[in-house]
Design a protein that fits this description.
alpha/beta; DNA polymerase, domain 1; Rossmann fold; Arc Repressor Mutant, subunit A; 3 domains; nine-stranded mixed β-sheet; three-stranded antiparallel β-sheet
C-alpha cells in the first residue's frame, strides 16, 4: 500500500498540516489553540492578519507563513517519504487517530508512521526499562512481552537498547504486534544496531514518531517521546530501572495520564531494581507473572485472562550435582570463587557444570566475572 494517506488527504491538505508542524516559534499547545479557534485547518490558512495576530501576537514569522499559504515547494522530502509503501501521516482530524492518545494533556497533532497505522488504536501495554539490564531483566522483558502479546495485547516500547529491544523481540517471538515510539525522525533508525529489528516491527506493527523527518537523536527528545509510549497504552510495565532512569519518567507520565503502572521487583542489591522498588512504594502494582498484568488490564482490553505456562520440551535434564549448584547460585549475581566455597566442589567441576547450565539457558554471565540464574 503506497501513498496511503495521499488517498485520504489531498497534497494541499498534507502541505497545510506539515506547514503547521514546522511553524517557527509555535509549539503543539498553540497549534491546538489555532485549530480550536478557527475550527479547520483551511480556516487558519485563509484567516486575515488581524485574526492571526490575536492568537499569534509577536510571532511575525509564523503569521507571514500562514498568509503565504502552505509551503508545498519546501516539503518535497516529506512527500517523497509519504509516497513509499506503508508510510503514513496520521493527523488529529483522522478518524483512526489513537483514542487513548487524544486523552493525554499534550497530544501531538500529527504522527509519522511506518507500518500498520491501525495498530495504534489496539489495546497496548508499554514495557520499558534499563538500557543496560541484567540477564534476568532482559529475560523478564522478553518473557513478559511474549506472554502478554500471546494474550492479545500489543507491546509498545521505545526501540532503545536493553529492555526495550527485548520487549519488541518477545512480542515478535509470540507472533504478536509491537509498536516502537522513536525519539528521531522516521527516516533514520536509532540505535543503528536495531535497524533489522525496526524493519521487523514495521512488518508486524508500527514505527511511530511525532518528530519531523531529519530529526537526529537529540537527548532532549527521548523524555518527550516517553509521554507517547505511556499515552498510547492502557498501562506501563517497568522491568528494571535505576533511580535516575528515563523509565521512571514514563511511569510518572502514565500516572499523570490516569494509566496503570506495574513494576517487577528485583534484588535489593541490584541498582537496576531500585527504581522499580521506588515505584512499588509509590503505589505501582508489584507483578511476578504476566497474569498479574492481565488481571488489571484484561477487562479493559478484552484480552485473554488466563495464560497456560509454556513447557520447554528440549530442556536438558539436570544431574543432582547440577541441581544442587543451581540452588547455590540463587538469583543474585555470584562469583565463581563464592560458588566453589558454597558448594565445596572443585573449580573444574563448577566451571564444567556452569557451562552446561549456560548452554541450557539456566544461567548467564554477568559483568565482573559473575554468573546469575535466569530461569
Amino acid at each position: 500500500m503506497s501513498g496511503a494517506l495521499s488517498a485520504i488527504l489531498s497534497r494541499e491538505t498534507l502541505a497545510m498540516w506539515l506547514t503547521l508542524r514546522r511553524l517557527p516559534g509555535v509549539g503543539g499547545h498553540t497549534q491546538r489553540e489555532l485549530l480550536d479557534h478557527f475550527g479547520t485547518l483551511e480556516n487558519i490558512f485563509s484567516a486575515s492578519r488581524g485574526q492571526l495576530d490575536r492568537l499569534l501576537a509577536g510571532k511575525h514569522e509564523a503569521i507571514e507563513t500562514f498568509l503565504e499559504g502552505p509551503q508545498t515547494q519546501s516539503l518535497q522530502q516529506e512527500f517523497e517519504w509519504l509516497d513509499q509503501p506503508d508510510h503514513h501521516l496520521l493527523v488529529w482530524s483522522d478518524h483512526d487517530y489513537p483514542p487513548l492518545l487524544r486523552e493525554i494533556p499534550d497530544p501531538p497533532l500529527m504522527l509519522f508512521v511506518i507500518g500498520r497505522r491501525e495498530v495504534l488504536s489496539h489495546p497496548q501495554i508499554a514495557i520499558v526499562g534499563s538500557r543496560n539490564p541484567s540477564p534476568v531483566g532482559r529475560e523478564n522483558a522478553q518473557a513478559f512481552a511474549r506472554s502478554l502479546a500471546g494474550a492479545g495485547l500489543t507491546i509498545t516500547s521505545g526501540l532503545a537498547l536493553g529492555v526495550d529491544g527485548a520487549a519488541h523481540r518477545g512480542a515478535l517471538a509470540a507472533g504478536g504486534l509491537t509498536i516502537a515510539v522513536t525519539g528521531t525522525g522516521l527516516d533514520r533508525v536509532y540505535p543503528a544496531r536495531h535497524r533489522d529489528l525496526a524493519h521487523q516491527i514495521a512488518e508486524h506493527g508500527a514505527l511511530v514518531s511525532e518528530f519531523p523527518l531529519g530529526t537526529p537523536p537529540l537527548p532532549e527528545n527521548f523524555p518527550i517521546r516517553n509521554r507517547l509510549i505511556s499515552g498510547l497504552s492502557l498501562g506501563t510495565l517497568v522491568v528494571e530501572a535505576a533511580l535516575q532512569s528515563g523509565s521512571l519518567i514514563t511511569a510518572r507520565l502514565a500516572t499523570e495520564q490516569g494509566r496503570e503502572v506495574f513494576a517487577i521487583p528485583g534484588s535489593i542489591h541490584a541498582p537496576q531494581s531500585r527504581g522499580c522498588h521506588a515505584l512499588i512504594r509509590q503505589g505501582a502494582k508489584l507483578v511476578e507473572t504476566a497474569q498479574d498484568v492481565l488481571e488489571e488490564l484484561g477487562p479493559l482490553a478484552n484480552v485473554t485472562h488466563y495464560l497456560v505456562p509454556e513447557k520447554d520440551a528440549t530442556a536438558t535434564p539436570l544431574t543432582p550435582p547440577m541441581t544442587a549448584l543451581l540452588q547455590q547460585i540463587g538469583y543474585d549475581p555470584v562469583s565463581i570463587d563464592a560458588l566453589i566455597e558454597r558448594s565445596g566442589l572443585t573449580a573444574d567441576a563448577v566451571s564444567s557444570m556452569l557451562l552446561q547450565m549456560e548452554l541450557s539457558g539456566l544461567v548467564a554471565n554477568c559483568p565482573g566475572g559473575k554468573v546469575q540464574r535466569i530461569s
